[in-house]
């Protein structure tokens, strides 16, 4: 059952008194590349990387296109390329 509500004008706060920023956006920043996969379609191959974002858990990591991530965040791939080169050189010496 509904009850009658008596409003109190003293409890109303004007919006001008509240400091609200106009741009309340949260910019996600990638932290690490967790995995890489290549999906083969009929005519092409699509490479994807699993990206761990700041303020998220590993379970919430998302798959993104590798090409787009390399364009936007090349620093994430520099350490991976160095590791790949060192692994290849180690394998070639064996």
UniProtKB/TrEMBL annotation:
One Pfam family here: Chromo
Among SUPFAM superfamilies, the record links this protein to: Chromo domain-like
Query: From which organism does this entry originate?
Result: Solanum verrucosum
Question: Boundaries of each Chromo domain copy?
Answer: 31-78
* InterPro entries referenced in this protein's UniProt entry, alphabetically: Chromo-like_dom_sf, Chromo_domain
Q: Output this protein's name.
A: Chromo domain-containing protein
């Amino acid at each position: 059952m509904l009850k009658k509500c008596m409003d109190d004008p003293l409890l109303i706060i004007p919006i001008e008194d509240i400091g609200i920023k106009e741009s309340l956006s949260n910019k996600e920043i990638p932290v690490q590349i967790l995995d890489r996969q290549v999906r083969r379609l009929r005519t092409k191959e699509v490479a994807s990387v699993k990206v761990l974002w700041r303020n998220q858990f590993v379970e919430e990591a998302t798959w993104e296109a590798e090409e787009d991530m390399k364009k936007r965040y090349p620093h994430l791939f520099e350490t991976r390329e160095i590791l790949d080169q060192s692994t290849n050189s180690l394998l070639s010496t064996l």
